[in-house]
Amino acid sequence: MISITINGHQQELDVPSDMPLLWVLRxxxxxxxxxxxxxxxxxxxxxxxxxxxxxxSCQVSIGDAAGSQITTIxxxxxxxxxxxxxxxxxEQVPACGYCQSGQIMAAAAFLAQNPDPEDEEIVRAMxxxxxxxxxxxxxxxxVKTAAAGMSAQGATTNG
Length: 159
Fold this sequence. Notes:
single chain; alpha+beta; 5-stranded mixed β-sheet; 7 helices; about 45% helix; about 15% strand
């Protein structure tokens, strides 16, 4: 049995330790918000947070994730009201939408570490997440919008 916390809920899983986290999420736990894109750490569609850091779930075995805190798109905000999710809506980012959960998870982890990024930093942080519809300008704008929203939210709650 492998013990792991996913979206704040402790899970005891009877799966092979070398099974990719992506397949545990999708096939065992029926959490299909995390997408399969390439399976080779190239596209970012499967991005989740492992102990607060963005990782590609296709490349992390469940054994390596044991004992970790995993957050998926379903757990980022139960009501879909995380500042990054709200910015994605405001900036009308999705076209086909397939890459969006990975994009959002990458952006949320990035902004948690760098809440006031420069444009070049956003480009570098997001460049590993591919968008087949080429919505990169909207994605960058949404990351900026989310950063501003998070900054305003912090000023409201801290002041």
